[in-house]
Amino acid sequence: MSDRHTLHPFEESLASLRDNILMMGSLAERNLTNAANGLIRRDQELCNNAIVDDEEIDILEKQIDSQGMEIITRFQPVASDLRVVVAAMRIGSNLERVADQAVSIARRARKLNQHPKIQESILIETMIQKTIALFKDSLRAFSDRNMDLALTLKERDREIDRINAEISGQFTDAIGFNLEQIRGYMNLIFIARNLERVGDHATNIAEDVVFAESAEDIRHSYKKPEN
Questions:
Q1: CA nearest 151: which of 62, 219, 68?
Q2: With bands split at pLDDT 50, 70 and 90, how would you rate the model's confidence at 49?
Q3: Lowest mean pLDDT among 57-71, 135-149, 157-171, 207-221
Q4: I want to staple 109 with a disulfide (CB 3.0 to 4.6 A). Which of 39, 84, 130, 226 is the partner?
Q5: In 10 A of CB 149, how many CB atoms?
Q6: pLDDT for the residue 221
Q7: Which fold has domain 2-214?
Q8: What is the mean pLDDT of residues 130-158?
């Protein structure tokens, strides 16, 4: 009985940390979706929402870091529980960076929306869909503690890398024929790069799920080719 009383505050603290990660993930997903839809629909309000709402995610990241450190110092968890706490703190950091990428996309989308639509911008929509789906699955892998799903995400990130390289090359080529739209094409190139980085952060989240569940560190097991 005394052991259960001792463990109960620890379990509550872990549950609270997990809930905050899930909340932060939901907010980051919302911001990324708003930024992407702001670009596709040329909707300035959605872009503005993605930018303004980033502050809430920044606050949550600090709270998660504080919670994690408090759990470590207060309860001195054993190895398996310590992995969960460390992984959660790293996931929080990656979620904050996803939100930052969403802000960058939204800001560039606002600039693009002030000018006539660039026809080739439709090329980026497939990359948007794949990136958001990858990010959602990284959150689902964490929520469900699904290591099998987590292990599939790195390969899907390679596809996003390939699309980024392909469409960035196409936009670069298009600049030569449309010099008056050079700023627009450059914004699209940077948006593609933002999406590629979201894929990286989603993969990082998946790697931390594997680490928390199995103690296996699969980081750097696949290195991206140099540009």
A1: 219
A2: very high
A3: 207-221
A4: 39
A5: 16
A6: 62
A7: Methane Monooxygenase Hydroxylase; Chain G, domain 1 (1.20.58)
A8: 97
Instruction: Please give the full DSSP string across the chain, using - where no structure is assigned.
Output: -HHHHHHHHHHHHHHHHHHHHHHHHHHHHHHHHHHHHHHHTT-HHHHHHHHHTHHHHHHHHHHHHHHHHHHHHHH---HHHHHHHHHHHHHHHHHHHHHHHHHHHHHHHHHHHTSPPPGGGGGHHHHHHHHHHHHHHHHHHHHHT-HHHHHHHHHHHHHHHHHHHHHHHHHHHHHTT-GGGHHHHHHHHHHHHHHHHHHHHHHHHHHHHHHHHH----TTSS-PPP-
Distance, CA of 213 to CA of 192 (rounded, Å): 32
Percent of the chain exceeding pLDDT 70 equals 93
Residue 7 pLDDT greater than 80, yes or no: no
Distance CA(109)–CA(37), nearest Å, equals 9
Neighbours of 78 (CB within 10 A): 8
The domain ranges of the chain are 2-214
Q: What's the confidence (pLDDT) of residue 4? A: 45
> Cβ distance 34 to 51 under 8 Å?
no
